[in-house]
Amino acid sequence: MKTLVIIAHPDIEHSRGNRALRDAIAHDPNVTVRELYKLYPDFRIDAALEQQLIREHGNIVLQFPMYWYNCPPLLKKWLDDVINDTLFGSAPEKSLVLKGRTLQLAVTIGRVSERYFPPTRDYVWADDVARPYLKPELLDRHGTDIVEVLLTPFEQTAHLAGMEYGHPFVTYNVGPLARMGSINDQDMLARAQEYLQLLQRLDPVTQEA
Fold first, then answer.
1. What are the tens digits of pLDDT across the range 168-192?
2. In this structure, what CATH number is given to the domain that contains residue 134?
3. Is the residue at 68 inside a domain?
4. Cα(112)–Cα(78) distance, rounded to whole angstroms?
5. What is the extent of the structural domain holding 54?
6. Closest to 62 (Cα-Cα) out of 9, 134, 13, 130
7. Where are the beta strands (DSSP E) in 2-152?
8. pTM of the model
9. At 37, phi and psi to the nearest 5?
């Protein structure tokens, strides 16, 4: 069964990161790409259609930029409207609809990775700002797993749905080229090819799964 890729970026044509990731997978015959902000600019999601597409596909990929340590609002609404009792029935823990599938995240972060993996506990985000970019207590608790921790609601969603949860594919530094530390176009294209290869390596799902 083909992989269903749900992309949630409000202005993807002007996005260096998400556009490159999308373009790398768009022509793969084993991938179906759905761009939520183009399909549902009014936020009126056709939940029945989306649920039918889920049933007709195998693995599910959610591709999005991280905004304020979360996903864009239309993706949250898609999850609320689509991944619900209509899809699973009244007891999601007993549902077999998504059994044997993988939920894979592909997340872009505009800022440099040092903001999430600071060289010291007191690393600040600008010369004229006194406080650290990340709360030190969070770093003490989670260390280099901080981004994975921010994404744990998706991991729990996969668990409740009976899905496997792929290790998040996170790309940092995808801000404007003029911003110090931003990934260059050549490295972004290479990263996009890694994304394509990741999707191709996902365990295939049969019709019976």
1. 999 999 988 777 778 999 999 999 9
2. 3.40.50.360
3. yes
4. 29
5. 3-201
6. 9
7. 3-7, 31-35, 60-65, 102-108
8. 0.91
9. -75, -20
